[in-house]
């Protein structure tokens, strides 16, 4: 699932973000790559709107900010690895180190839900999360996410 949604340019490791807003803006910016045709601020607004309903910090150092944005004609994902962690108001109260953003058009609700479930399944694995946080570079993190298990 992630292999279909993720582009290597939308994966970043070793990031330091000061707070939840900065983390959401980082993910929003990554989601617009590689084309950069969609405004990152509008994607940030979509993610923030969803975040206001409830934190997308799902626990175990993971957050999956997501939303629906008709500026995109396909579902896409982006990944930001913040080894130092960021307070994301996660359900378990722990800092978030792995952020996986997902956006797509409103016309794809089933695919959106399937993507969320797929990401959750991949990141449920302790070893996968550790490999992502310890990845030497973005290419290594990308491989961890897309290689079949």
Primary descriptors:
23% strand, single chain, 42% helix, 149 residues, 6 strands
Which percent range describes the beta-strand content? 15-25%
Order of helices and strands: HEHHEEEEEHHH
**What's the main sheet like?**
6 strands, mixed
Per CATH, the class reads Alpha Beta
What oligomeric state best describes the polypeptide chains here? Answer: single chain
Tally of distinct domains: 1
Helix content: 40-55%
Quick structural gist:
The protein is an alpha/beta fold. It has helices at about 1-5, 20-30, 40-55, 110-125, 125-135, 140-145; strands spanning about 5-10, 55-60, 60-65, 65-70, 75-85, 95-105.
Topology:
Layout: H1 2-5, E1 6-12, H2 20-31, H3 40-53, E2 57-59, E3 62-63, E4 66-68, E5 76-86, E6 96-104, H4 109-123, H5 126-134, H6 138-146
Parallel strand pairs: 1-5, 3-6, 4-6
Antiparallel strand pairs: 2-3, 5-6
Helix pairs in contact: 2-3, 5-6
Protein described:
The chain is an alpha/beta fold and 149 residues long. The protein has one domain: Mannitol-specific EII, Chain A (3-Layer(aba) Sandwich), CATH 3.40.930. The chain is 42% helix and 23% strand. The protein contains 6 helices and 6 strands; from the N terminus they run αβααβββββααα. Strands 1, 2, 3, 4, 5 and 6 form a 6-stranded mixed sheet that branches. Strand 2 (57-59) and strand 3 form a beta hairpin. Helix 2 packs across helix 3 (40-53) and helix 5 runs antiparallel to helix 6. The chain is globular, with a radius of gyration of 14 Å. The two termini are 12 Å apart. The mean pLDDT is 94.
């Amino acid at each position: 699932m992630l292999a279909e949604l993720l582009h290597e340019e939308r994966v970043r490791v070793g990031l330091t973000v000061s707070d939840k807003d900065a983390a959401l803006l980082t993910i929003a910016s990554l989601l617009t790559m590689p084309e950069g045709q969609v405004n990152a601020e509008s994607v940030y607004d979509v993610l923030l709107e969803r975040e206001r309903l409830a934190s997308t910090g799902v626990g175990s150092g993971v957050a999956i900010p997501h939303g629906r944005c008709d500026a995109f004609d396909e579902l896409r994902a982006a990944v930001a690895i913040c080894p130092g962690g960021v307070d994301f108001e996660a359900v378990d109260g722990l800092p978030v180190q792995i952020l996986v953003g997902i956006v797509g058009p409103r016309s794809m609700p089933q695919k959106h839900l399937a993507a969320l479930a797929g990401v959750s399944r991949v990141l449920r694995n302790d070893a996968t999360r550790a490999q992502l946080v310890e990845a030497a570079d973005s290419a290594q993190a990308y491989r961890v996410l897309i290689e079949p298990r």
